[in-house]
Sequence to fold (210 residues):
Amino acid sequence: MSTFLENQNWRYATKKFDATKKVSTEDLKFLKEAIRLAASSYGLQPYKVIFIETADLREKLKPAAWGQSQIVDASHLIVFANMTNFGDTEIDDVIQNLTTTRGLPEDALKGYGDFMKSKISPLPVEKRDTWTAKQTYLALGNLLNAAAEIKIDVTPIEGFEPAQFNEILGLEAMNLNAVLVATIGYRHDEDQTQHYAKVRKSNEELFLTL
Fold:
């Protein structure tokens, strides 16, 4: 029987990580592959996922994350950054990857590429940036589920100052913008939050059948 629901009940937003425990290279590879395989609109993956291991850099980022201890205590800090001003060039890159991966003629997917461009590129920059930012949440979902499967804790964090993260990490120069932060590692024995009963809406409150 699937252990998916059991894993979902096990996971929680860890408040205190054990700084002495590190995620192994093998498990890190597994989590990265789970993120890479996440669904995204048109399969475009309009974001970058930045793994920050350097202790000094994480110390610099901590004040910009409202002083949360997870930023420095977790095994790894992950920043999901959406691509800004996403448009024709980025779509062309994806089409090239599709063509190469599937062994197709260069012009086989031109119509599909043109269709995507017609739907995405004419949008105002603000709308495109909002759209690419939303895509990062799909990648985060895969990370949460994959980590729970191998009993690695993840804390998704929206409580941070994106502009400060962008400045410290030099993201604007790469046409990127920090949208989400996640810390991964192992819960500390002293984190009392792990013992709290999970609180969610009842089925009757949450679901509608029409």
Observations:
- The mean pLDDT is 97.
